[in-house]
Structures are given as C-alpha cells and as structure tokens.
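Appendix B. Chain record.
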Amino acid sequence: MSIELLDMNHRDAIIDAFEKAKQRIRIISPFIQGTMTKYLVDSMGKGITSKLITRFYREDFIRSVSSLTALKSLQNAGVDIYAIKDLHAKLYLFDDNVAIIGSANFTGGGFGNNIELSLYIEDEYDLIKRLSGYFDQLLSTIKDSGDFRITDIKIEEESLIVQKAIKGRDHTSKPNPVRFGAEIAARIPDAIPGDEVESILRIPDAGISAVLKFEGAAHRRLDPDSKYKPNYYDRRGVYFTASSKSPRSLTANTTVFLSAVSRDKSGAGIPIIVGRAKTRGYDSSNVTDSVLINEHSWAVDYPYYVELYDIETVDTEIINCISTRLIFWP
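Structure tokens predicted for this chain:
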C-alpha cells in the first residue's frame, strides 16, 4: 500500500498503470489528445472495459487543446465517452487498486512536458473506494441529466464544423461559444473558514515555494489520536524529513506542509496536514546511516533526509487537523 507524489515522472507512472490493469479503466479529464489515448486503445485490445468523462467544447477542438481524432479512436476501441460542462477534475482509476489524481490532463503535455503535480495511489482501498464512488456518482448524474454520450455521429458532425471554423479563423475571431454536455450545479461543501485555517498554519503569502511532504506511510500510519511530533535526529541535533528518493527538488528555504499519513474522522486513510516547516535544502551527504536507523527504525526504507527548521505544528491530535480531502476533493 502506498501514496506517492508525482512531479517529474507522470508518464512512466500512468504507462505502468495501463500495463498492470486487467479489468476496467475509468478516466476523468477535460482535455484529450492522441499522444496518450494510444495506451488506452491498447488496453481495450486486451479485453478491458473503459469509461471516460470529458468536456466537449468546440473552441477546444478549434484550438487543438483537445482532439476529436483522439476521441474517435477511443470511441472506435469501445470506450464509453460522456460529456459534462465546466469540468476541471482529473482522475484516473485502474481496476480497484490504483488511482492517479492531480493536475494532469490526458494529453502529451499533461503526462510529458507540463509541470504537473499528482498523487499515485496504490492498494489504498478505502481511499480508492471513495474516488471510485465519486466517478460513479458523477457518471450517474450525467446520465440522469440527459443524453450526453459522445457517439460516432456526434464526433463526425463536430469534425466537419470544426474544420470549416479553422479555415475561417483569424486573429479577429471570437471564441466559439458552442458547448455540449451535462450541466450540473457545483456543490459547495462545508469547509473550515479561510481565516481559521490561516490562524492554525499561518499559510505563507502567494509566491512562496511550498510543497506537501508526507510523514509516515500506508503500512505504518501515524496514530490519529496522537499529536504529531517532528522527526528528531538526536546524534546531529537536527529535525528532519526523510525520503525514499533523492529529494533534489527541496531547495533551501522551501516551505513544506507536513502531512501525516493517518486516518480522518470517518476512518478513511488519508494524509492530514499537521504543520509546516522550512528546509535547509537537499544535501547529498545527508544519507541515512546505521545511527539514524538505530534512532528511527523506519528510516531503513528512506535513504535520504533533509534538515528542517522553523517548525510549527498544530497543537491538537492528528485527527483534528486539516485533511487533504479539502485540497483534492471537489
């Protein structure tokens, strides 16, 4: 069981997920392009079923940010495709044990050239069940709203219109307003007031570099009824955070929001923000040794560490702190 932060390796992660999938694949992505759809087409050739929720905006096709040709190839392969307006979520579900959720669209940019940030979730069954429920509920709502399935005929008709629109397009042309898809009113969830969150963590001003840093792991979740205590390396007299991969992206003075891998009030396994700190930056000499492992036995799985300073933690039990569901959930 694991939750991995994806920053520079989105393409490798999703290709691996496609290769491992055996039964079904479900995707939510506003933009679709052929550079990625070929992997889904190949999966369909292995007998896997698939459903896709996307948006169907004429202007997107005119500007080539989304591709009718790619949708056509998916439709021909047997993918069930549905349209919804005002879509921004991106979710990739493989069987019932792997999910990717984050900022990446199902495009070459999203899984290649763009700077994206996502979570790769494997064998976290409670969390994936919730993500699966979100997908199924959204699809059910689309179906209840009307006939918003994207068919061969719909794609062919749109292709002819888009081709003519592209030929007549110049710098004075206004964006084409035509949009097809279910219209669903967004649900505004009850949330912690902004000023209360800021008073707890004193969230830094916009423009300051900040990242989420997970503390703990799926196989050693932190006790939700305990208060979070930062890792302390007694021999060196420093606080630290450890990583399974070389943390070269953590530069000096980077703000890290410490996120305890624990359980929320519903019992679901999810990272919970418990505080923040600044890093001294990546140092190649900060390698886990036998002394550190003797002090923290779990560090055997994390060969690199980064020193922390200016640490501030929320003075309450982990279960009462800020669930990342407020960040990633709609």
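Further analysis of this model is presented in Appendix C.
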